[in-house]
């Protein structure tokens, strides 16, 4: 029975895209294979979890920074996996490589974050160049690197990496479904029927640009409300903003997504865009920044892509989307999401795993 360990720093009690991907993978493996699956992360708990030592990372929304590369590698070696997947490019990625070398097993990386863009924001173009050099140095040591979108794939190839394949993520199209739409949802929030509800769900992190959405809603006027579901250090603020806590129930989240007028996302560093895809699967049209992974997910029929990140541009795009036929646009969004069902994504992922494990 093969044993896969996912190791990542991107693990929080209040969600995140990497956590959702790992949970979806585990559920699929349990339903369709005899594989054993473990998660190794600072703060990980529960069955088949490897809790690695770490300290809270300020401003991260619940992530913890690992303390000791060697100790983490030893913890991985002790579990005797047959395959390791690293979900971040930081210290634990090196621990995964150390453990893989000690055990003589394949190690794959999944590029869930845009490190060069993050460094560019902090330090300018020099930081972006340094980030690309670092990723090349790190990822060339992996047996294979997954890129969740064509944008990430191109960036990694441009950095000089040859061991990269595009491997998209997915959505449970049975769980996230238009049938979850419930008029009582907005009534429970005390919102009148004529209020246009714009929904964001995800981490409240700086790169999500939530202040842009709050300012756009203010510009649109009091008949528009932004409902933000999640947690993190940078929640949106304003008289027309309703902040709700992280929703651990996928069914409850699907109900909210299906019941909103629009899903909105101003982030410009999304390597894929799981939350937007979940909204589309629920038949909810989307307005997103025309950058990175989000730009690839959303067609003109399923929503609106915003070229610039200013709040006035988002306000204009939201107003345009609300003038469209929601039912027609929602159907197009649903059809787009059906092309990314988790079952298809997981079969592709398993193909890569099996080829690596069978390669001498």
UniProtKB/TrEMBL annotation:
Q: What is any Pfam family matched here?
A: Glyco_transf_4
Q: Where is the Glycosyltransferase subfamily 4-like N-terminal domain?
A: 16-173
- Its domain of life reads Bacteria
Molecular function per GO: glycosyltransferase activity
Protein name stated in the entry: Glycosyltransferase family 1 protein
Q: What species does this protein belong to? A: Aquabacterium olei
**Record's Gene3D superfamilies?**
Glycogen Phosphorylase B
Q: Which UniProt keywords apply?
A: Transferase
């Amino acid at each position: 029975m093969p044993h896969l360990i996912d190791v990542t720093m991107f693990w929080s009690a209040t969600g995140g895209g990497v956590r959702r991907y790992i949970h979806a993978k585990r559920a699929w493996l349990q339903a369709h294979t005899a594989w054993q699956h473990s998660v190794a992360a600072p703060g990980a708990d529960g069955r088949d979890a490897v809790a690695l030592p770490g300290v809270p990372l300020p401003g991260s929304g619940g992530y913890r920074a690992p303390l000791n590369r060697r100790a983490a590698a030893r913890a991985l070696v002790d579990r005797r996996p047959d395959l390791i997947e690293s979900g971040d490019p930081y210290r634990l990625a090196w621990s995964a490589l150390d453990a893989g070398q000690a055990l003589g097993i394949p190690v794959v990386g999944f590029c869930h974050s845009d490190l060069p863009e993050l460094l560019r924001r902090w330090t300018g173009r020099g930081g972006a160049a340094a980030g690309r050099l670092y990723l090349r140095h790190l990822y060339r040591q992996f047996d294979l690197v997954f890129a969740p979108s064509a944008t990430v794939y191109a960036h990694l190839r441009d950095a000089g990496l040859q061991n990269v394949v595009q491997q998209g993520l997915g959505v449970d199209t049975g769980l996230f479904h238009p049938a979850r739409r419930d008029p009582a949802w907005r009534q429970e929030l005390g919102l009148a029927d004529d209020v246009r509800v714009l929904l964001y769900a995800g981490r409240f992190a700086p790169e999500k640009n939530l202040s842009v959405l709050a300012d756009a809603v203010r510009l649109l006027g009091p008949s528009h409300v932004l409902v933000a579901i999640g947690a993190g250090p940078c929640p949106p603020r304003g008289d027309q903003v309703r902040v709700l806590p992280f929703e651990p129930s996928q069914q409850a989240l699907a109900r909210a997504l299906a019941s909103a007028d629009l899903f909105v996302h101003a982030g410009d560093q999304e390597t894929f865009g799981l939350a937007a895809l979940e909204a589309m699967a629920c038949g909810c049209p989307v307005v997103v920044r025309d950058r990175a992974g989000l730009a690839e997910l959303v067609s003109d029929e399923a929503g609106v892509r915003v070229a610039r990140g200013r709040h006035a541009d988002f306000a204009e795009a939201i107003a345009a989307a609300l003038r469209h036929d929601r039912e027609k646009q929602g159907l197009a969004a649903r059809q787009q999401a059906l092309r990314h069902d988790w079952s298809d994504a997981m079969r592709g992922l398993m193909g890569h795993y099996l080829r690596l494990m069978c390669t001498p």
